[in-house]
Amino acid sequence: MRGTRAQTNTGRKEGMNLNKQQKQKKETTIDSYYSPNGTEGERSANDKPEIPANWIQAVEELKTQLREAEDNWEKNLKIKISHLETEALELKQENSVLKAKITQLENEAKEMKDEAKEMKDKIKRMKDNLQRNSDQKEKDDQKAKDEIQSLRTRVKQLESSDLTRQQDTIRQNKKNEKIEENVKHLIHKTDDLENRSRRDNLRIIGLPEDHDKRKSLDIILEEIIQENCPEILEQEGKVEIERIHRSPPVFNPQLTTPRNVIAKFKNNQIKEQVLQAAKKKPFRYHGNMVRITQDLSASTLKDRKAWNMIFRKARELGLQPRIKYP
Question: What are the recorded Gene Ontology BP terms (predicted)?
Fold first, then answer.
């Protein structure tokens, strides 16, 4: 686990360094094509600078390193999830074994109770025989005493065994509590990893399905940004999208609301700028209201949903509650 965590941290640091280097390369390339007065296209064809070959090679190396870092990160994430699933399966198997042991102990206790009852019946018959056979009273009395002593010894053994079982049950309960704590911790770590994997994603809510038939989703997203916050495009240029798709991927005609759109940005800073702009004012696209939020895991969304009523009451009191990401 420590090795996997170290690889994940190394991949994350390499990804951040690559983003910084890529941004610096992009700014240098853009600045080289502008005149000193800040206007584009005033230089002649002879004055246009040529891109050095080592720059192109560096860019290709950066892309290769970025892909390798991303592959390593995804591989480590799959390994962690596999380990968590294996541990969860082992815990289930241990619980099944413990249940079987408890059932076995209960059956043994029931058998001991039946034996004790039989012993009592036997003592009663012995007393009746003593009354009918007075001439063998002394012999029968001694025999009865011996049997009573044996029964007392057996009862003590049963009491000692019962105490041992109680102690085992207490230890097992403590072990089960520790197992439950470990499972909760693993679930929390899994949710945290999933949320971190979605940190570059935005969720677009309310975008009608019919727009997909005329244009691709990446073009629609760029048009939404152009329509609602054009200053981001003016500063950063074209918005680069790594992946964008509908969620769920299969269309359900029974649903009355359009499916959400998940977009993964290559540049986290642009993603944050779009998210902050969406918080300041409602976004529209061709007259339709669309809502843009941070993409989170299903468990985190469920936990946040539990706060809806509290937030509603707080807003009625004039407060502005917020949940810190994630």
Answer: retrotransposition
Can you tell me the distance from the alpha carbon of 235 to that of 173, in angstroms, rounded to the nearest whole number? Answer: 61
pLDDT tens for each residue of 177-192: 999 999 988 888 888 8
Distance, CA of 61 to CA of 59 (rounded, Å): 5
Split at pLDDT 50, 70, 90, the class of 28 is very low
**Which residues fall within 8 angstroms of residue 271, CB to CB, at 6 or more apart?**
200, 201, 202, 265
Specify the pLDDT at position 325: 54
Alpha-carbon distance 40 to 30, whole Å?
10
d(CA 91, CA 97): 10
Query: Three-state DSSP class for 285?
Result: strand
**pLDDT tens-digit series, residues 134-145:** 778 788 888 888
At the fourth CATH level, the homologous superfamily of domain 199-295 is L1 transposable element, RRM domain (3.30.70.1820)
DSSP 8-state code for residue 33: T
How large is the average pLDDT for residues 235-245?
Answer: 85
What does the alpha-carbon distance between residue 249 and residue 268 come to, in Å, rounded to a whole number? Answer: 24
- CB-based burial, 48-80: b 16+ in 10 Å, e otherwise: eeeeeeeeeeebeebeeebeebeebbeebbeeb
Q: Domain ranges for the chain, please list them.
A: 199-295
